[in-house]
Amino acid sequence: MCRVCLRRPEIPDEPHGRCESCARAGRRVYQFRLRPTSTGFQISAGELSPRALREHAGAALQGFSGSPTSKPHLTSTTCELVMAGKRLESIRVSPGLASKTEAVVLALRQGAVRSEATW
Ligand SMILES: [Zn+2]
């Protein structure tokens, strides 16, 4: 199944696990794992480094005004950014984070202002 749209079958050996339509549209998914902190969450691992997150999605995250959606394929404390180029299409969270979406968006925004090479 395509990692981006979760609907169509992925192209065999496509490096990002996408269907033809998502690959053609340049859509990508980046997954992040969060760890709980005393005040909310912090990114603990991700498919983009802090620097790359800022570069690819920093502005889009600051301007994001939508609501993250809960998706059952995500488990534990994981979330995903769905990007089309530099446009942030959506944020998806695991069902366990569904009631904490504001804290998730905050953790992603805070991650995007860090400049370290690794989490
Ligand atoms: Zn797709």
Key traits:
alpha+beta, 5-stranded mixed beta sheet, 119 residues
Structure notes:
The chain is of the alpha+beta class. It has one domain. Helices cover 24% and strands 27% of the residues. The chain is built from 3 helices and 5 strands. Strands 2-1-4-5-3 form a 5-stranded mixed β-sheet. β1 and β2 form a beta hairpin. The longest helix has 13 residues, at 50-62. The mean pLDDT is 96.
Q: How far is it from the N-terminal to the C-terminal residue, by CA?
A: 29 Å
Low-confidence stretches: none
**Regarding quaternary structure, how should these chains be classified?**
single chain
Q: What coarse outline follows from CA principal-axis ratios?
A: globular
> What is the topology, as strand order, of the major beta sheet?
2-1-4-5-3
H/E series, N to C? HEEHEEEH
Average pLDDT number:
96
Give the names of the bound compounds: zinc ion
Query: Approximately how much helix is present in the residues?
Result: 10-25%
Strand fraction:
25-35%
Number of helices: 3
Tell me the total number of β-strands: 5
| Helical/strand content category | alpha+beta
Radius of gyration: 14 Å
